[in-house]
Write a structure and sequence with these properties.
The chain has about 230 residues and is mainly alpha-helical. The chain has one domain. It has 9 helices and no strands. Helix 1 packs parallel to helix 6 and helix 8 packs antiparallel against helix 9.
Length: about 230
């Protein structure tokens, strides 16, 4: 009975956490894109986007609450906060994934830009802050907390069910920025939203298999780095 109560308690916490996170982040995206970022030049756009929104606010709104919840529910998690960062990782096993990301995105650039591969002219240094902050904050929330809290002692089948749900939640948190940058219709009509789901599966699988959050963060950062270098976003 006590175990069932604890399970119900953490499930309720997860639902409330995601609803609050989504609502607050929707408001943040609205304020920044309609009140600040929309009136900025490209360099200021990325400085505000990377340093303030994805940096300061994401640390306060995403990262700190996630870490506090990870510590509060550590006995109910697949991995503790310490284990997520201390477990040894065989980095060679990640090379195929890094290679897959590279081939997929570089070939995409070659096709889109008529056979040329080069860094986009609009690239600015502050985009590297975006790569850093997004990788850390999103992985700590979606893999380090939300997925971590649902797969302890779970069967393989249940683990993959939780990964699927986690991927839909990961997709959902991207909807606010697509709305306020007028990309929502394009993202869904072109089926490019599927790449977000696929990436979430890869990051989740990596987290489960390596028993570490670090590889998922590195993979996330690498994907985003290629995106800002070759696609500009």
């Amino acid at each position: 009975m006590f175990l069932m109560a604890k399970t119900k308690n953490i499930a309720t916490t997860l639902v409330i956490y995601y609803v609050v996170l989504f609502t607050v982040w929707l408001c943040v995206e609205w304020v920044f894109h309609l009140k600040f970022i929309s009136t900025s030049d490209p360099e200021n756009y990325w400085l505000i986007q990377s340093g303030i929104k994805e940096g300061v606010l994401k640390i306060v709104i995403w990262l700190i609450p996630a870490i506090l919840l990870i510590r509060a529910y550590k006995s109910r998690l697949y991995l503790s906060l310490e284990e997520m960062f201390r477990n040894r990782v065989n980095w060679l096993k990640l090379l195929p994934v890094l290679l897959l990301f590279t081939i997929y995105l570089v070939l995409g650039v070659y096709d889109i830009f008529d056979g040329t591969i080069s860094i986009v002219p609009g690239f600015v240094w502050s985009q590297l802050l975006w790569v850093l902050f997004v990788g850390i904050t999103e992985e700590m929330v979606f893999r380090g907390w939300l997925l971590n809290a649902t797969i302890k002692d779970a069967s393989k089948r249940k683990q993959w069910a939780m990964v699927a749900i986690n991927s839909l939640l990961f997709l959902g948190i991207h909807v606010p920025i697509w709305i306020f940058t007028n990309q929502l219709d394009i993202v869904f009509s072109s089926f490019s939203f599927l790449s977000v789901i696929a990436l979430s599966f890869i990051f989740s699988w990596t987290f489960i298999k390596t028993k570490s959050i670090v590889p998922a963060i590195i993979l996330h950062m690498y994907w985003d780095l290629l995106m800002v270098l070759f696609y500009g976003a």
